[in-house]
Amino acid sequence: MNKYKIAFVAGVMTAMPVASFAADSDDPIVIPLHNWSSQLVMSNVVGQIFESMGNNVEYVTTDSQAVYESIRLGDVTLGMEVWEGAFGASFRAALEKGGIVDAGDHDAVTREDWWYPMWTKDACPGLPSWEALNDCAEIFATPETGDKGRYLDGPVDWLKHGKERVEALEMDFVVINAGSAAALWAEIGAAEADKKPIVVFNWTPNFAEAVWPGEFVEFPEWVDGCDKDPAVGPVPDALYECGNPADGYMKKAAWEGMEEKWPAAYEVLTKISFNNAQIAEMAVLVDIEEMEPVEAAEVWLAENEDVWKPWVN
Fold first, then answer.
1. pLDDT computed for residue 23 by the predictor
2. Could you give the CA distance from residue 107 to residue 93 in angstroms, rounded to a whole number?
3. Complete edge-to-edge strand list for the sheet that includes strand 149-153
């Protein structure tokens, strides 16, 4: 970022309406950081908004599944990206125990599942059907997977249950876990050079859909209970045979004590709502523009005052 933009951002940040609020509590609002770009930027955006209101903020790196237990216990104050497909089960389990509250939905509609860039469809024209994908399994084979296809899933802690789905549907694939979101993007980029067929875990919203047009694999339609009741879904005595919800929610979560301890911040949290384009834009700042999340948050705030200032004012 050039010196003029830095100066512009600094000016905007100092112009935030700090006089409108006093700190709710001297204790820090604890915001978790996970391992994908939009969450890192969004968390810093929200943290900087809270700081502009006079609050103290602390960031902690946490496991993206275990965080809901941490929120429930009050060790972490909130969560900004509760994706239905990835974290719905962990979120619901924490809600049932108590101590955590649903702080409202974002406008964004999410989807996360097996995905392929469009050049893959040229080699396997029956796509997006999962049966067609399985019939083409050999074109995805690597030395690592032998005569079976390779599916690159998300990091282990995202708990995408790719192995369970392969077993339930008796697919000729081996599931390999990527180490990070960046590793997924690198895999797609490497395959692009010679249009190598590839199937990986992907999600929307993120920047990738603008860089690599592609499609999600269509698995058996999601039915409530597919992830916890073996009697639900097309395969008896199996879990995770369904695809993830095609129009999933993205929620915010909060420790139930947040409203009392930081009432002004909690009210702002309930108003915050990002849409697909805004979340993708946050990811672009890190994944394409190569900014650090803190810097990306400053830039986003400077360029989107019309979005966030009404939440505060």
1. 58
2. 23
3. 173-177, 149-153, 200-204, 111-117, 214-216
Contacts of 306 (CB under 8 A, 6+ apart): none
Pick the CATH number of 111-216 from 3.40.50.800, 3.30.360.10, 3.40.190.100, 3.40.1190.20: 3.40.190.100
Give the span between the Cα atoms of 59 and 170, in whole angstroms: 42
Rg of the chain taking only CA atoms, in angstroms: 21
Q: What pLDDT digit, counting tens, does each position of 142-157 carry?
A: 999 999 999 999 988 8
What's 141's DSSP letter?
B
The CA distance from 104 to 196, in Å, is: 41
pTM: 0.78
More confident: 181 or 8: 181
**92's tokens:** 């619901």
Helices (H), 98-176: 118-123, 130-135, 162-168
Q: Which CATH number fits domain 21-109+247-312: 3.40.50.2000, 3.40.190.10, 2.120.10.90, 2.40.50.140?
A: 3.40.190.10
Task: For CA atoms 241, 174, 189, 161, give the dihedral sign.
Answer: positive
| Banded pLDDT at 5 (limits 50, 70, 90) | very low
